[in-house]
Design brief:
Elements: H1 4-13, E1 21-26, H2 28-31, H3 37-48, E2 53-57, E3 72-74, H4 84-90, E4 96-97, E5 105-109, H5 112-116, H6 131-137, E6 141-145, H7 153-161, E7 176-178, E8 184-186, H8 205-210, E9 214-219, E10 222-228, H9 229-242
Parallel strand pairs: 1-2, 1-6, 3-7
Antiparallel strand pairs: 2-5, 4-5, 6-10, 7-8, 9-10
Helix pairs in contact: 1-3, 3-4, 7-9
Length: about 250
């Protein structure tokens, strides 16, 4: 059974920068038995990153939560659909959740409030100026814990910014978000329309490993994949320049 100290040691061994920005995608089940369960996992991540910025997704994009019948996302009450750890995280003291109506994130630590500010003004899942773009600006480390690149939302960002074809709807859907003060804001959203979604993204792993921009490690029982945002975007952009449909072909 893993303790908080064990998990912190694994982060250190993976050379996570504790004073930088870290975006985490995690499968709690893959981590294995942890003394204190999900709370200890979060304690380890938050303690390790207390001098930096820790970011987890709190998406509602699966349309079972926010959809045409219920087009409203509430920053306080709408649940995350991307795992139990993300739902626990957004309730932690000091954590700030962005107001994006489908692809919100939650952040803790240095400049967390400023990091999530304005996300409701982005009208695509990972548009310019939003939190995913800010990850690129900060050259954040992106850590996949027990999940593959098919769960790396940042790659969708590179698609939006670097010319992937046929990934966004022609017309927006009407969406609203209720902010922390209870105000209802209009936030229409263009949405991803690719038939393959993100299921082809693991094809990037081999070239990323070959170029030394993806590093493997462990966190509990889970295999981890660690990448830098700028290097990952450069890799994706290179493939998209050669073939704008590259990421959506098996």
């Amino acid at each position: 059974m893993y303790t908080k100290s064990d998990l912190i040691a694994h982060l250190k061994k993976s050379n996570i920068e504790p004073h930088g920005t870290l975006k985490v995608h995690i499968s709690y089940k893959a981590v294995g038995d942890v003394d204190g369960r999900g709370d200890t996992v979060l304690d380890a991540l938050m303690e390790y990153m207390h001098g930096g910025l820790l970011v987890l997704p709190t998406h509602t994009w699966n349309w079972r939560i926010v959809n045409s019948e219920n087009p409203v996302s509430d920053a306080l009450y709408t649940k995350s659909c991307v795992g139990a750890i993300t739902e626990l995280f957004r309730h932690r003291p000091g954590v700030h959740r962005s107001l994006h109506p489908s692809h919100s994130v939650a952040a803790f630590g240095k400049e967390a409030a400023a990091f999530v500010e304005g996300d409701e003004r982005v009208n695509t899942p990972c548009g310019f100026g939003g939190c995913y773009y800010k990850l690129w600006e900060r050259d954040a480390q992106i850590l996949m814990i027990g999940v593959g690149l098919n769960r790396c939302t940042f790659i969708h960002g590179s698609e939006e910014w670097d010319g992937a074809e046929n990934i966004l709807s022609a017309e927006p859907r009407e969406r609203y978000v209720i902010n922390h003060a209870g105000q209802r804001l209009y936030a229409p959203q263009y949405y991803h329309i690719s038939r393959t979604g993100s299921e082809t993204f693991p094809k990037l792993e081999a070239p990323a490993l070959a170029r030394g921009i993806l590093h493997k490690g462990k966190f509990g029982d889970a295999d981890t994949r660690l990448m830098r945002a700028k290097a990952l975007r450069e890799l994706v952009a290179e493939f998209l320049k050669e073939d704008a449909s590259y990421l959506h072909r098996y």
